[in-house]
Amino acid sequence: MFRALLTSRLQAAFTAAGIQLPEGFSVSVVIASDTRYGDYQSNAAMTLAKQLKTNPRALAQQVADKLDVTDLCSKTSIDGPGFLNFTLSAEALAQRLALITQDDHFGVPQVEQTKRIVIDFSAPNIAKPMHVGHIRSTFIGDSLARVARFVGHDVITDNHIGDWGTQFGMILHGWKTILDHEALDKDPIQELVRVYKAVNAQTKADEAVLTTCRNELVKLQQGDPDNMEIWTRCVALSLEQLRQIYGQLDVHFDHYLGESAYNDKLAPLVEDLLTNGIAEISDGATCVFFRDVPELADKPCLIRKSDGGFLYATTDLATIDHRINDWMADEIWYVVGAPQELHFRQLFQVAKKRGQTTRMQHIAFGSILGQDGKMFKTRSGESVGLLEVLDEAVERAAAVVAEREGLTDLEKTQIAEVIGTGAVKYAELSQHRMTDYKFSWDKMLALQGNTAPYLINAYVRTKSIFRKLDGEVTLTPDLTITEAAERALAIKLAQFAETTHDVLLDFRPNLLASYLYELADTYHSFYEACNVLRSEGAVRNTRLTLCEATSRVLKAGLGLLGIRTTERM
Ligand code: ARG
After folding, report:
1. Distance 162 CA to ligand 1 centre (A)
2. Where are the alpha helices (H) located in 165-311, listed in sequence order?
3. Whose CA is nearest to atom 5 of ligand 1?
């Protein structure tokens, strides 16, 4: 990618000019925000001159004299107080463009060091409604997994399902008293949630029900065969339906290792932590204290309650062991909402005490709000489940597609599915993950603006050009980029490489979303400025190649967000 190439050339120029770089000083080149002076820009000379207390322009000149970028740039210049500006040459751009249409990775370089990364995302809880937090986690996690794989990492996706919580006390009691078997067959998740809520309400009104539920839970934990059987069925039924939803969403997991998978690891783990002096007994409970970490000094991590029960954190510690010891994870990423920040901070501290050096990252996110700015709820005031959202999205997309002409009913149904799910995913992924965003059907389904329908439509338009040509085109590598609009598009296309890598720096798929939106806009400007079909020879070949490359990058980029495209719409 140009940014990396220019950075290494600039570094080499500093060395060649005999300039010693101070410890920790990194020479960086960025995409120019103002393209009047060039396509890429570096303020390295200015920053360094400040540190060395010398003249920035003179320093920049010294470096520029040694700069060897003739194969990449048609012009380099020193502007303003000492900015180094780089203008890419038409040849270099043409080469890139050809690469984008030929290379499996569209010119996006592979990482130098492949890492094994375990990504923990989605992780709903059995018999509890999947809420918007799970929606965000599912989309962000899936996109990060796709990007990490695409750039060459070895990714393991693991759905750490909440299949062993205290909710099962209520579920077991409800299963035995109020379960509607027919409803269970039809929609197990919904029926289990109904049962859970109903029993939960009963426990509030009647102390005795609460005791019964607790007893059911204890029996389950002790391995009572009847309760185990019910539990197994609950998990199996829910998983089956979840897999179906994930299938519809095109989200895939390598493993579904829920919390229950670690049950028999918990007691030995706590023993081990006690023996090693990492944990201690305090008021009958087992805790890990962080006396040397100021912000956690009064926030110990509880790993075994005084009644002997284990906790969410205990399971997570056992899970870390598994991921490190059996999967050889180099990194573990947790895509979980911001409210669990403390949990992960504690977890990572315990891991540190245990000498586990694997990089662990909590990838947090904010909430989704309704139009009223409060937590997103359905009309009946329930928290919104993923299924309802998806169904409604597809239904609304179908209404948009219904007016289209020249499509069969089957095509319309398929398109509505792609657009509906794509719209919900894009509404999520185009936001910075830490911002709370408002869920708006009208906005996300709009054909104009920063939306999935707009981008999918842009893709369809790139394709329709080739349909008009009836397949009678062979693109050749002789490209001549002359017009400003062609150049702007070629540069945008080339920047797919930088953007894709940048997504993983701070785990931000929204960078890719913004990029794709800009690309679609740049494409439209190009299409207006440059006639494609009526041009000839090398010009036509170049323009068609630009269309083809745009088509490929839009499809691949949306694909990295987990969004499918359609050929018509
Ligand atoms: N089931 C949890 C919840 O719904 C999320 C689990 C996240 N992953 C983890 N390893 N703790 O809040």
Report:
1. 7
2. 167-177, 181-186, 188-205, 207-221, 225-249, 263-275
3. 123
pLDDT the model gives residue 378: 55
Q: Ligand 1 centre and the CA of 410: distance in Å?
A: 38
The answer to whether the CB of 203 falls within 8 A of the CB of 167 is no
Q: Per-residue pLDDT tens for 287-322?
A: 999 999 999 999 999 999 998 889 999 999 999 999
Q: For the chain, how far is it from start to end, CA to CA, in angstroms? A: 33
The full length of the chain comes to 569
Of the candidates 312, 376, 394, which has an alpha carbon nearest to the alpha carbon of residue 346?
A: 312
Q: Which residues of the chain have pLDDT under 50?
A: none
pLDDT at 207: 94
Give the residue from 191, 101, 214, 134 showing the smallest Cα distance to 550.
101
Query: In angstroms, rounded to a whole number, what is the distance separating the alpha carbons of residues 200 and 561?
Result: 38
Q: Which residue segments constitute the domains of the chain, with CATH numbers given?
A: 2-88 (3.30.1360.70), 167-249 (no CATH), 386-560 (1.10.730.10)
Residue where the block lists tokens 């010398």 = 54
Determine the distance separating the centroid of ligand 1 and the alpha carbon of 393, expressed in angstroms.
26
Tell me the angle at which helices 167-177 and 225-249 cross, rounded to the nearest 10 degrees.
Answer: 100
The structure's pTM equals 0.94
- pLDDT for residue 379: 54
Within 6 Å (CB) of ligand 1, which residues are found? 120, 123, 125, 160, 162, 316, 319, 334, 336
pLDDT tens figures, 500-530 = 999 999 999 999 999 999 999 999 999 999 9
- Residue pair 30/40 in contact by the 8 Å Cβ criterion: yes
For residue 409, the CA-to-ligand 1 centroid distance in Å is: 40
Phi-psi region of 167 (alpha: psi -120 to 50; beta: other; left: phi over 0): alpha
42: enclosing H helix or E strand: strand 40-42
- State the SS3 of 426-454: HHHHCCCCCCCEECCHHHHHCCCCCCHHH
